[in-house]
Design a protein that fits this description.
Blueprint (H helix, E strand, L loop, with lengths): L6 H14 L3 H18 L2 H17 L3 H18 L10 H17 L2 H15 L5 H17 L3 H18 L2 H17 L3 H17 L6 H14 L3 H18 L5 H15 L54 E6 L2 E5 L16 H5 L3
Antiparallel strand pairs: 1-2
């Protein structure tokens, strides 16, 4: 096929189609074709879109450092080219790179930079009247708040997603809004309503044909089952999520799936911390690398979020005396010396390879 400018949008849309189907290898190959064509056409706008797509594929595959490099390069291109872009394209690529950069930075352990990027994305999207882009951006923002375990913010943003999706007829984003709202309600003690919303949202999501993010979204249902006193049902959902990881290669949330899977075992162990909830915390044999700068990232190095501090921004939790006492399927579980939960939520996409070194 002749390589003309008209070929690029075809390849790009095919890439996003396979991405939503969680066929990541095919999506990656198409993203590489997009990059090559954009470079040959010497078109910065097309290259920006290709970087956005490549970074998104890598993000869901769990290759976060490489994904972040693409997002940073995309934002650099956007900053250079934004004044020459048409009004139709002026905000879209910049917003999407900012949105995913925020998520990558959080999972890599850079909470301040993550929040800053997310706020930048919201500010930029509100300068235009593009409902689809707004729903897309709000979904990325609510995902960050969920990773931060901020249920009130999650509910607020989820309801905004539901409103715009119903007004504009966006079934995919409507499903996402319902799923996040269900998680937030369950977290706030409204387990029955939250569970109903989760089931409805997941059913709507599956009806769209989408499979991307399935392993991540299923953890919401597993948590809700656990909170509602149905741990066996929660474990079955986690098995479904892990099967999706193995079938698709969607590894963005794999470490957290194993952590959640290990909690019931941790609670059943008759040890010095018996009876308290399972947590993920560093011990004497494992710690995160020191602060460093993401390749291509702007600004100086930010102190990395430790696993023990992850997911509880500003929570003031005690971590002194944390002991590594159980490694289950490559995931470290710990308790503070007083039996207090440490770092209930996810926040760092901890490397399974690193954790398995302590087995």
């Amino acid at each position: 096929m002749e390589e003309t400018p008209q070929l690029f949008p075809v390849l790009l849309r095919l890439m996003f189609f396979y991405l939503q189907r969680a066929e990541f290898q095919t999506a990656w190959e198409l993203s590489e074709q997009c990059q090559s064509l954009a470079q040959r056409l010497q078109d910065p706008m097309r290259l920006l879109e290709a970087y956005q797509g490549s970074g998104t594929v890598l993000f869901w595959r769990g290759e976060l450092t490489q994904a972040q490099a693409y997002f940073e390069e995309g934002m650099r291109l956007y900053a250079v080219a934004q004044h020459s872009l048409s009004s139709l394209h002026r905000q879209g690529p910049g917003v999407t790179c900012l949105t995913y950069a925020a998520l990558s930075l959080w999972l890599l352990g850079y909470p301040d930079q993550a929040l800053h990027r997310s706020q930048e994305a919201l500010t930029l999207v509100r300068t235009v009247s593009r409902p689809f882009l707004l729903a897309y951006t709000l979904t990325g923002v609510v995902l960050l708040h969920q990773l931060r375990r901020e249920e009130h913010h999650v509910q607020e943003q989820a309801e905004a997603i539901i409103t715009v999706s119903r007004e504009e007829g966006f079934p995919y984003f409507l499903a996402m809004g319902m799923i996040f709202r269900g998680w937030a309600l369950a977290r706030q003690g409204q387990e029955e309503e939250g569970m109903a919303q989760l089931h409805q949202g997941l059913a709507t999501y599956r009806n769209t044909g989408a499979k991307m993010a399935q392993s991540y979204l299923l953890t919401f249902l597993a948590e809700a089952y656990g909170a509602g006193g149905q741990p066996e049902a929660g474990l079955r959902v986690l098995d479904e999520a892990l099967a999706a990881v193995h079938d698709t290669g969607e590894r963005m949330y794999e470490a957290e799936l194993y952590r959640l899977k290990g909690e019931p075992l941790a609670d059943a162990v008759d040890g010095p911390y018996s009876g308290s909830r399972g947590v993920l915390a560093p011990g004497p044999h494992y710690c995160l690398p020191p602060a460093r700068k993401i390749p291509g990232a702007t600004g100086g190095a930010e102190p990395r979020t430790t696993v023990a501090a992850a997911g509880q921004a500003g929570g003031g939790l005690r971590v002194a005396g944390t002991d590594l006492w159980l490694v289950h399927r490559g995931i470290c579980h710990g308790r503070s010396s007083g039996g207090q939960d440490v770092a209930r939520g996810p926040g760092v996409n901890t490397s399974l390879a690193c954790l398995r070194q302590v087995e």
